[in-house]
Design goal:
By secondary structure, this protein is of the alpha+beta class. It is 50% helix and 20% strand. The protein is elongated and about 80 Å long. The termini are far apart.
Length: 127
């Protein structure tokens, strides 16, 4: 009789460990979110000197990572004269939290004086 309880408890413990492992693997498999910017800068000096430093500091502080930045190579369509940038975020929630943070909101208020922001976010795909 005692062996039946041990086997039953072992099976329950195994199921609990398995469920935890599946949840952990599922959480790790979530795709990142990429933010692509094609900003039309009207005053490059002020944009660089007044906006970029605080904006980049807030991105770093909130977990964003630059994946690419610089002049883009036009393949088709139109492209602003200024550079293109791509940021990676862990989730859409992380991106939104950064956009709504007080440090970025303050930087953005400066940035809109010197550029028109064209930004899109897209979820990464799991291969």
């Amino acid at each position: 009789m005692r062996i039946k309880y041990i086997v039953a408890l072992s099976m329950l413990a195994g199921m609990a460990v398995g469920a935890f492992a599946v949840q952990t693997l599922h959480a790790q498999a979530k795709s990142p979110v990429y933010m692509i910017g094609l900003n039309e800068v009207t005053d490059a000096d002020r944009y660089s000197n007044e906006y970029l430093r605080p904006a980049q500091a807030s991105i770093k502080a909130h977990g964003g990572v630059y994946v690419a930045a610089g002049p883009g190579t036009l393949i088709e369509g139109t492209l602003p004269k200024e550079g293109v940038f791509i940021l990676r975020w862990d989730s859409m929630e992380a991106l939104k939290a950064w956009r709504e943070s007080s440090d970025y909101v303050a930087a953005h208020q400066i940035g809109i004086r010197y550029a028109k922001f064209n930004i899109v976010a897209v979820r990464g795909v799991n291969q």
